Amino acid sequence: MRTPSWMTLKSRVSATAIASSMAIAALAAGGMLPVTAAHAQSAATARGLPDFTDLVDQVGPSVVNIRTLEKVSNNSAEALGMDEDMLEFFRRFGLPVPNVPRQRSPKGGQSEEEQPRGVGSGFILTADGYVMTNAHVVDGADEVIVTLTDKREFKAKIVGADKRTDVAVVKIDAKGLPAVKIGDVSKLRVGEWVMAIGSPFGLENSVTAGIVSAKQRDTGDYLPFIQTDVAINPGNSGGPLINMRGEVVGINSQIYSRSGGFMGISFAIPVDEAIRVSDQLRATGKVTRGRIGVQIGPVTKDVAESIGLGKPEGALVSAVEPDSPAAKAGVEAGDVITKFDGKAIEKVSDLPRLVGNTKPGTKSTITVLRRGKLKELSMVIAEVPSDESAKTKAGNSGAGKTPSGTLENKALGLTLSELTSAQKKELAIKGGVRVSAAVDAAARAGLREGDVILQLANVEVSDLKSFEAAWAKADKSKPVNVLVRRGDWAQYVLIRPAK
């Protein structure tokens, strides 16, 4: 949007606004209103609200409506337990009919027809027919129909969809289409005006506007979302979020709602992230991501201070997958990853994004904090399998006979015993001590029987003797950090010793 000159702006000020300003000045002169307040109100009146009409004219033709169809049994009324009149009501108003098992006709052939499945939005990415939308808009569709603002309809081919980022690309057979301009998300500021165009509840080319409420909002593993207060409802999904320069800065994807409708909080996928995904989808039909094979969690303020990190940042390694890049590089449970390829890990969600955007086969380095000291480890990035599932086996730290010899620490509320060789082998650890009982301080910290203590006060624990040595050196006036292994997971806990 062009910034108006003073004469243009002046010509827009109505007689009512001028009279209002004069009245404010008169009140201020009479002592009824402070002069500074008068000036502030007069300035706000002159500034006015943004005009989105030029933006709608500029970007509107690039926004499309997307309808999806699915094949269902034409005997679905009987299968659903509803009569034909009720089924016709669903069809007439474009409501999705619940899917039912496909039924065969008496002659053995398939008896099925296409029914509306859902409505969404999208925008033209290139003049030769590539359209970007959300993956959930086209997921499970047997047919995708793209409608342009000039009412032309095209059957679209799904080029690729990535569920992890909720980005999809479809292709229509058309040329000379009005493609959008892509904006620079890094220049987007909180408080900036933005606009959305889409098809909420199937109402095509609906325009809503608001401001950017927050950036880098963590609601997903791979994406830092843009939060806005732009009115977004079902059907807006896949439509563009547009800045005041007419550039697309995001894809409207999610809403926070308790009712199913807009409640003032909506989320958009940053367009720079979406473009990276779309480039891969257009090239290969899928997205390739890197992985290092660790399970991670956040670092709390108390834990950060107790392990010498200073402030709560980085990613705490809870578990390391066997034979993974991290395991081969020597990463251990309890390590805190502070950097990846020299880039700081400020919050836990930074790591999967940085690793995921790294091409498999790349040699990378990570910096870890281990027992108060920083170490740099090298590894070769692996590829995330397309059908990867987050499955972790349940370890049983109590397997095997517990050897004789126990240690009781009343200040910590712990009764400890040595680990058997079978237990060490099962957990793939070199040492540690097993919690036989946890009471008082230890119980309040969340420890329980069967846990394995790997570190105490930043000192590695290999057996009962090393535990005693670490406890002797610990500052007993402060909470003591303990690295605890439970099954396949490890985490830090703070125990406040009894006085």
Automatic annotation (TrEMBL):
<keyword id="KW-0645">Protease</keyword>
<keyword id="KW-0378">Hydrolase</keyword>
<feature type="active site" description="Charge relay system">
    <location>
        <position position="136"/>
    </location>
</feature>
<feature type="domain" description="PDZ">
    <location>
        <begin position="286"/>
        <end position="349"/>
    </location>
</feature>
<keyword id="KW-0720">Serine protease</keyword>
<feature type="region of interest" description="Disordered">
    <location>
        <begin position="386"/>
        <end position="406"/>
    </location>
</feature>
<feature type="binding site">
    <location>
        <position position="136"/>
    </location>
    <ligand>
        <name>substrate</name>
    </ligand>
</feature>
<dbReference type="InterPro" id="IPR036034">
    <property type="entry name" value="PDZ_sf"/>
</dbReference>
<feature type="domain" description="PDZ">
    <location>
        <begin position="401"/>
        <end position="488"/>
    </location>
</feature>
<feature type="binding site">
    <location>
        <begin position="235"/>
        <end position="237"/>
    </location>
    <ligand>
        <name>substrate</name>
    </ligand>
</feature>
<dbReference type="InterPro" id="IPR001940">
    <property type="entry name" value="Peptidase_S1C"/>
</dbReference>
<feature type="active site" description="Charge relay system">
    <location>
        <position position="237"/>
    </location>
</feature>
<feature type="active site" description="Charge relay system">
    <location>
        <position position="166"/>
    </location>
</feature>
<keyword id="KW-0574">Periplasm</keyword>
<dbReference type="InterPro" id="IPR009003">
    <property type="entry name" value="Peptidase_S1_PA"/>
</dbReference>
<dbReference type="GO" id="GO:0004252">
    <property type="term" value="F:serine-type endopeptidase activity"/>
</dbReference>
<keyword id="KW-0732">Signal</keyword>
<dbReference type="Pfam" id="PF13180">
    <property type="entry name" value="PDZ_2"/>
</dbReference>
<protein>
    <recommendedName>
        <fullName>Probable periplasmic serine endoprotease DegP-like</fullName>
        <ecNumber>3.4.21.107</ecNumber>
    </recommendedName>
</protein>
<keyword id="KW-0346">Stress response</keyword>
<dbReference type="InterPro" id="IPR011782">
    <property type="entry name" value="Pept_S1C_Do"/>
</dbReference>
<feature type="signal peptide">
    <location>
        <begin position="1"/>
        <end position="28"/>
    </location>
</feature>
<keyword id="KW-0677">Repeat</keyword>
<feature type="region of interest" description="Disordered">
    <location>
        <begin position="99"/>
        <end position="118"/>
    </location>
</feature>
<dbReference type="GO" id="GO:0006508">
    <property type="term" value="P:proteolysis"/>
</dbReference>
<feature type="binding site">
    <location>
        <position position="166"/>
    </location>
    <ligand>
        <name>substrate</name>
    </ligand>
</feature>
<dbReference type="GO" id="GO:0042597">
    <property type="term" value="C:periplasmic space"/>
</dbReference>
<comment type="similarity">
    <text>Belongs to the peptidase S1C family.</text>
</comment>
<dbReference type="Pfam" id="PF13365">
    <property type="entry name" value="Trypsin_2"/>
</dbReference>
<dbReference type="InterPro" id="IPR001478">
    <property type="entry name" value="PDZ"/>
</dbReference>
